[in-house]
Write a structure and sequence with these properties.
By secondary structure, this protein is an alpha/beta fold. The chain has 2 domains: 2-49 and 371-382 and 407-429, Urease, subunit C, domain 1; 52-358, TIM Barrel (Alpha-Beta Barrel), CATH 3.20.20. 31% of the residues lie in helices and 25% in strands. It contains 14 helices and 16 strands. The strands form 3 sheets. Strands 1, 2, 3, 4, 13, 14, 15 and 16 form an 8-stranded mixed sheet that branches. Strands 8-9-10-11-12 form a 5-stranded parallel sheet. A 3-stranded parallel sheet has the order 5-6-7.
Length: 430
């Protein structure tokens, strides 16, 4: 007898198939018809069963800033957004730049996190010699900051080269934030007397990203590291990645906020639309969607970076950069499916299959298959919902997508065979 059984239409490979899915000991034990009894079963008549979402870029803020988010609230928001595995970034307090700190963060996560997780290892000046020891305990290295950032985590070009060489030996992925510190410093000085948040895309212009991305790509080619450029936002970056993919081990992701918002939204959002890299032009946004259509973009990741409303209401130069997004990512991408911008399989590749493959987790994760982890999200493709910050489960209770009308919502999330979130179901049977 299975512990749990889901009955309905499932995305198996490229096809939607009517089937039963038996789950035991955290695994998908059987997929077929009339597979047998279960302790608990759910029959879905109009919903679709998909592989759980893997979010490879989130900031859960614990330890050190739990007033913004912690492992409990962050993972709850993730589960409500269909996310079954999250990669937590290292810029906590203290940052996860030693094996001891990685293990300490994992103990915190084990006590609170309701979904699966990976802790990412931080890279800073002076810890390059520690990366090999950290490697078995981390999901990836990064986010590696090429520009000014949190405390000790910014590294220069020489240190980046040395870090890539060491990370290449471990086989782990180097998740890299590509912005150039000198370009940023120039424009920060130029605009220092301005206080309007709408200048943020000019303070950190597209040139900053493309220059840093070009550097990272060349260093990756020279070191053989598995490079992942995160939250790319410009047309130029898409061209750079496309041109080097056949010559280097490179992947990249884009975020929902760059896919669904542009610099024009800064006028209404103010600091609530301030993130790094900034919102870009409509032309850049179009290039990101083209990158998805042509396979240049491998993944969509949330860059979930919650801050309090009080922090965001500070003057522009004092307000922190970052927006929440882990709970709204899947509904927004399902809306893109409904609008026929992408199909359901392409969405699954961006959110599940490709992240699992890139980080060596496939087919344990990222797919609905016998023997795989039971990481599953069930979605209603036709249900409409208005995004409202007060309804979200992040501690910050706001969103740059306030008032957005989405079509497609998660109704159940299963992580390693355990129901992490479920709407009230009329179709549950025993």
């Amino acid at each position: 007898m299975y512990e749990l059984k889901l009955v309905g239409t499932a995305l198996l490979g490229r096809r939607l198939v009517q089937c039963e899915m038996g789950i035991s000991e955290g695994k998908i034990a059987k997929i077929g018809k009339h597979i047998g009894e279960a302790e608990s079963a759910f029959v879905f008549k109009k919903e679709v069963i998909l592989p759980g979402v893997i979010d490879t870029h989130a900031h859960f803020r614990e330890p050190g800033a739990t007033y913004k988010e912690d492992w409990e609230s962050g993972s709850k928001a993730a589960a409500h957004g269909g996310v079954t595995l999250v990669f937590d970034m290292p810029n906590t307090m203290p940052p996860t730049t030693t094996l001891q700190r990685v293990e300490e963060k994992k103990r915190l996560a084990d006590s609170k996190c309701i979904i699966d997780y990976r802790v990412c290892g931080g890279v800073r000046k002076g810890n390059i010699h520690e990366l090999a020891a950290m490697a078995p305990a981390v999901g990836a290295f990064g986010e590696i900051f090429m520009c000014e950032s949190f405390g000790e985590l910014q590294i220069d070009r020489r240190e980046l080269f040395e870090a890539y060489r060491e990370i290449a030996k471990t086989g782990k992925v180097a998740i890299t934030h590509a912005e150039d510190p000198d370009i940023n410093a120039f424009f920060r000085e130029k605009f220092k007397k301005r206080e309007d948040p709408a200048i943020h895309p000019e303070v950190r212009p597209p040139l900053s990203e493309s220059l840093a991305a070009a550097t990272a790509l060349q260093l990756a080619r020279g070191t053989g590291v598995k490079l992942h450029l995160t939250h790319l936002s410009t047309k130029e970056s898409m061209m750079l990645v496309r041109n080097i993919k056949k010559r280097a081990d490179v992947t990249c992701d884009v975020t929902p906020h760059h896919l669904f918002l542009t610099e024009e939204n800064m006028k209404e959002l103010g600091n609530f639309g301030k993130m790094n890299p900034p919102l870009r032009s409509r032309e850049d946004q179009t290039a990101l969607w083209k990158g998805i259509a042509t396979g240049v973009v491998d993944m969509v990741a949330s860059d979930h970076a919650p801050h309090t409303k009080e922090e965001k209401k500070k003057p522009y130069w004092e307000a922190p950069a970052g927006v929440p997004g882990i709970e709204t990512m899947l509904p927004l991408m399902l809306t893109a499916v409904k609008r026929k911008w992408i199909n359901l399989y392409r969405m699954s590749k961006l959110l599940s299959i490709n992240p699992a493959k890139r980080h060596g987790l496939y087919p344990q994760k990222g797919v609905l298959a016998e023997g795989s982890d039971a990481d599953i999200v069930v979605v209603d493709l036709n249900k409409k919902r208005e995004i409202r910050g007060k309804d979200l489960h992040t501690k910050c209770k706001w969103t740059p997508f306030e008032g957005f009308q989405t079509v497609g919502v998660p109704v159940m999330t299963v992580s390693r065979g355990r129901i992490a979130y479920s709407q009230p179901m009329q179709s549950k049977i025993y």
